[in-house]
Amino acid sequence: YKMKRRLGEIEQFEFEKLTDGDHLHLTIAISGWLEEPDQEKGFKEPWRTMRLSRERYCLKWEPKYLREVGSGITSLVTSGAISLATQEALKFTILQGIMSAIAWPMSVLKLGYLIDNPWGVCARRAAEVGKQLARVLVEREQGCRPVSLIGFSFGARVIFHCLKALAKMKGRLLTFIVL
User: Fold this and answer.
1) Mean pLDDT, to the nearest integer, of 120-129?
2) pTM, entire model
3) I want to staple 34 with a disulfide (CB 3.0 to 4.6 A). Which of 42, 126, 145, 148 is the partner?
């Protein structure tokens, strides 16, 4: 199960239009994680104020895994702050020795999580989505016009792998890239 999840096929890859009308220049925005439980809003919200071109799309890819990364980041920040505060408070009590004795085994247990963590799964899936995006761009699904790509976090990784694939295909179609 774990390897299938990590190496499985792309489950979702689709473009959603963010603006009305057709224009010469096209921008594709790629999110790197989702914080919103609502998938539609999660992909669109980060790009609401983007004015790079008049015709804008967002790439909706692997929402299940991107949401896991987003919730993982949120819980990491909150649990990290709570854990740090607790450790600092316990330093001044008799439990200091016990805490230092179990700190190393706890960190080893956390390493088991790395086998199938959302970060690793998204990193692998971003590479596959990047290759798929390159194929779509080379096939000129968007027409014969200039295209810009913009993305953050795993969205930037998608763009990176797209550029690598385009270089192998000798595809020269992008005008502007923001990572």
Assistant:
1) 91
2) 0.74
3) 42
